[in-house]
Design a protein that fits this description.
Blueprint: H1 9-40, H2 43-63, H3 67-80, H4 84-96, H5 100-113, H6 120-131, E1 135-142, E2 147-150, E3 153-158, E4 161-165, E5 168-175, E6 182-188, E7 193-199, H7 234-266, H8 270-304, E8 317-325, E9 328-336
Parallel strand pairs: 1-7
Antiparallel strand pairs: 1-4, 2-3, 2-5, 5-6, 8-9
Helix pairs in contact: 2-3, 3-4, 4-5, 5-6, 7-8
Amino acid sequence: MKRLPTFPFAVVVASLLAGLSFAVASTAAAESKGKGKGAKSDPAVEAKEAARAAYGNGQAAFNAGKFDEAATAFEAAYAAIPNPIVLLSISESRAKVGQIDLAIAALQKYLAVRADAPDKADVEAKLKALSATPAHVAVTSEPAGADLDLDGSPTQKQTPVTLEMSPGSHELHTMLHGYHSETQSITVTPGGTQELAFTLNAAPPEAAPVAATSTAPLSDVEGAPEPSSGRPMAAIWVTGSIGAAALIAGSVLGFMAVKEHSDFEHHPTTASADRGERYALFADVGFGVGAMAIATAAVLYLTSSGSAHAEAPASARLELTPGLTPSSASASARLLF
């Protein structure tokens, strides 16, 4: 019978301990490796860390006055973890850089996702204030220098100019001498900036005023004197003055003729007789002209007293044509307007 080999006890124990240690070490390494893999693949943890880092960057940029960078960082934080509080920071940052429409959108989203927000009243008040932010519109025209009316009211400004308008729809009207007026409508958003250009078309030259014909009443002719409120009119003054002057001249000549006649009776001479006849003749002419002029003035006075026609122009004149013969005198008169 063959005998089995034997090993010392110490060697056997050492071999068992070594195997156990290796097994424990392998198990611990496997558990540790499994835990490490699980921590790296947890998306919630990664998103939370990204949101925390982005929000911190946004706060630092905002405090440094870099509001555009701050808004971008806050938006990244909200994209990682959609916390409604971050929307308030986004709105404030966008408002700082004049992006009023984005600031309004952030507040509207905040109220939509957090209807029971404890600061709802304050947020709504801020939203109302932002919605009333005026817009700015740069208005130009070709050619420049056109007057502007905004919604029917003069702006007292001329193109090119930047106008401030409340949010909503408006109507702009341009006016420039020698050009057709133009009107355009525009709708502006809160805090927005827009441009509006006008191209004006030249208007045809104005036609010269048509001269009045001789048949038109003086009151219808442009520049004609207004009807006088009463008498006398210019023509009455002219004819009346001529008549008065003629009567005075006739009276003087008549007195001279009478004096010559008296002298002739006391000292009869041919020269005295001739002078007396000439003075008498001229006196008759003066009285005749004076009578006709006075009669003409009277006719004008009576015919114009009940009419509404304008008074005759100052250029009216009376033409007298005397007629003399050795034994008589005559005169004809014609009033020209």
